[in-house]
């Protein structure tokens, strides 16, 4: 059974997004209280950047080198924050509505993407937006990119699943899941596998190259909002409206363990780089750090 601790001095509002730094030394969380929180994983001291966004912080991602934190906000802004100083270095405008999800595009960290209520994928550099990618028929809560930066994944509330290349060409499209796609995630060890989850409590593993379903994972009541692959490809974590976290063995596609400590929807999940820890953020305002057995 996994051991856990609630991280100290946490947010004063719901947690929408969490991430683990590439070196495993930091955890970041984005809160609806307009702030991000950054914990040192050795001392568990926390630093706050208050009023980072004029509205809630909906998405946070460490850069591939860990030196920056990419954030998206309900104030329609994308920001780059220096991890060491917690100073905003870049603030980008152009989104027409709430931003729900952000991610870096490629290992050099020079490009990044966002999506949200305006139904578009926006590709950015520090100088501003360079591309809009359309096609989704409804708002999008989640996007992700492959580790090699060659593929962009998103899902819409019309149950559409898209994969594009960075030039905006559609590589994959399916309609799947009940009541919309609420979460998506690329495998970290392979650009050929990704996961999607919807309002029916089911997560699906896809093979991008063949377009086939590798497995359907049913373990939640209500929608699934959090998805994360372990870095070695052995595990998928799902977090749901039922406040549970399910750990799935990707060799067998069987449920290995249920983690129960949250009291509200689990919105975001991230594995540590060595795959021995998991961090979760929830609408119950808690960030929980799990030591996996």
Short account of what is shown:
This protein is mostly beta strands.
Record the SSE blueprint.
Blueprint: E1 3-6, E2 15-20, E3 26-31, E4 36-40, E5 46-49, E6 57-62, E7 68-73, E8 78-82, E9 88-92, E10 99-105, E11 111-116, E12 121-125, E13 128-133, E14 142-145, E15 152-155, E16 160-164, E17 170-175, E18 181-186, E19 193-198, E20 202-207, E21 213-218, E22 224-229, E23 235-240, E24 244-249, E25 254-260, E26 266-271, E27 277-282, E28 287-291
Antiparallel strand pairs: 1-28, 2-3, 3-4, 4-5, 6-7, 7-8, 8-9, 10-11, 11-12, 12-13, 14-15, 15-16, 16-17, 18-19, 19-20, 20-21, 22-23, 23-24, 24-25, 26-27, 27-28
Can you walk through the features of this model?
The protein is built from no helices and 28 strands. The chain has 293 residues and is mostly beta strands. The chain has one domain: Methylamine Dehydrogenase, Chain H (7 Propeller), CATH 2.130.10. The strands form 7 sheets. Strands 1-28-27-26 form a 4-stranded antiparallel β-sheet, with no helix packed on it. The mean pLDDT is 97.
